[in-house]
Design goal:
alpha/beta, 6-stranded parallel β-sheet, 3-stranded antiparallel β-sheet, 15 helices, 12 strands, hydrolase, NAD(P)-bd_dom_sf, carbohydrate metabolism, Alpha-glucosidase/alpha-galactosidase, metal-binding
Length: about 425
């Protein structure tokens, strides 16, 4: 009998210096042998961060006996030659600019949350991020046109929408939001997450759970959730529960992320991202990594277990080995996956991954009131992408003026002028 050669591939990880996304990817990459013999090329413009994450990758690769070939480079174009999968977790001057995205609107009277995917912050994340992402796309179209691009960076919906509309790159966005929503639900149900299955459709950070079921029996858990929610602590995820009781389905993924899209989103907690805690956590994480690499501290147990987050490695393995693997949730260019939302929109739905690529699983139309609510945000995202693609300040102002979070024309103009200037080095036409 002839022996078959194991199928291998080349994976390029852009922004591999990102400690949080990098470690999550590593936990999935190096706890499976499905990609043994494949090449993982780590790319970042920060040599020190790249060196750290490369050393950690080699350590975990050996510890898990995963059998990957690890490369590193700061040369993106060289890395992309021959790639079949490109994973992106790049962010531009992340914390400094994100802090401005929240603080400048707040200074001008805009009440909002996080300032990342919706409201003025979502617009400026889009304006500065899309030009760089389009640089990636042009390189992929030239150097590895058949590669699957897997985006992990925010603003997810706008990245996928922009690439879907203006490029030929096969694009998929991945987010762990649906699993966070499941966690909230399980606190109310009093059930373990592993025993609960959720199916959602909608927008990134604004999916609606069409089905909540007992994983073993298939029993519909919505009646139990509705009953238990009535007596659960009212301080627990209050905005999500108000929408659940108003619209009849549970929205993802949390009050702060979902609240970015709503004029009353601050009612779930008016706050920005906790940058101080983030910096503290990154310092602790980097120290743990340095100790593990040096051999002076043990590798934490959870680093050698699969993550509960994004499913990039599962998508790659499913496509590579034609496994017809079910992926709980991903962001794709709509084109009918949710029939009562615009076709030129990025939506989040379940997926199937096999050798033919990534296939959205349609759960049918959303309930009409929910679709109408999402149409408002759909228009904001579409106009924001147009503003970024054309580097148009006029379109950017229009995007602010149709955003439900913005309640003042004077504030919109002042926010636009101030944040446009702060982001000017990164804003340029994409096409």
């Amino acid at each position: 009998m002839a022996l078959t050669t194991p199928k291998t591939t080349k994976i390029v990880f852009l922004g591999a210096g990102s400690a949080a996304f990098g470690l999550s990817m590593y936990r999935d990459l190096f706890t499976t042998k499905e990609l043994a013999g494949s090449t993982l090329t780590l790319v970042d413009t920060n040599p020190a961060a790249l060196d750290r994450m490369t050393a950690l990758a080699r350590l975990l690769n050996a510890k898990g006996d995963a059998g990957l070939i690890i490369e590193q480079t700061t040369d993106r174009r060289a890395a992309l030659q021959g790639a079949e999968f490109v994973v992106n977790s790049v962010a531009i001057d992340r914390n400094r600019l994100w802090k401005l995205d929240f603080e400048v609107p707040k200074k001008h009277g805009i009440r909002h949350t996080l300032g990342e995917n919706g409201g003025p912050g979502g617009l400026f994340f889009t304006l500065r991020t899309l030009p760089l992402i389009f640089d990636f796309a042009r390189d992929i179209e030239e150097l590895c046109p058949d590669a699957q691009f897997i985006n992990l960076s925010n603003p997810e919906s706008r990245v996928v929408l922009g690439l879907g509309k203006y490029t030929k790159v096969k694009t998929l966005g991945l987010c762990h939001g649906i699993f966070l929503a499941r966690w909230f639900i399980c606190q109310i149900l009093g059930m373990a997450e592993k025993d609960v299955e959720v199916w959602g459709a909608g927008l990134n950070h604004f999916q609606w759970l069409m089905h909540i079921r007992d994983k073993a029996s298939g029993r519909d858990l919505y009646p139990l959730l509705r009953e238990k929610e009535k007596t659960h602590d009212p301080a627990f995820t209050p905005l999500t529960r108000r929408l659940f009781n108003s619209f009849g389905l549970w929205p993802t993924c949390s009050d702060d992320h979902m609240g970015e899209y709503l004029p009353y989103g601050w009612e779930g907690g008016e706050h920005g991202f906790d940058f101080a805690e983030d910096e503290r956590g990154r310092g602790i994480l980097n120290a743990l990594m340095d100790g593990a690499i040096a051999g002076t501290t043990p590798v934490p147990d959870d680093w050698t277990q699969p993550s509960w987050g994004e499913r990039a490695v599962q998508v790659i393995a499913g496509v590579l080995h034609n496994q017809k693997r079910f992926i709980e949730s991903g962001i794709v260019y709509n084109q009918g996956a949710i029939p009562n939302l615009p076709p030129d929109l990025a939506v989040e739905v379940p997926l199937l991954a096999d050798a033919a690529g990534v296939h959205p699983v349609s759960l049918g139309p959303l309930p009409d009131p929910i679709a109408k609510l999402l149409h408002v945000q759909a228009s904001v995202q579409q106009l924001s992408v147009e503003a970024a693609v054309h580097a148009s300040k006029d379109l950017a102002l229009q995007a602010l003026l149709i955003d439900p979070v913005v309640n003042s024309t004077d504030a919109a103009v002042k926010i636009l002028d101030e944040l446009w200037e702060a982001n000017r080095p990164y804003i340029r036409p994409c096409v």
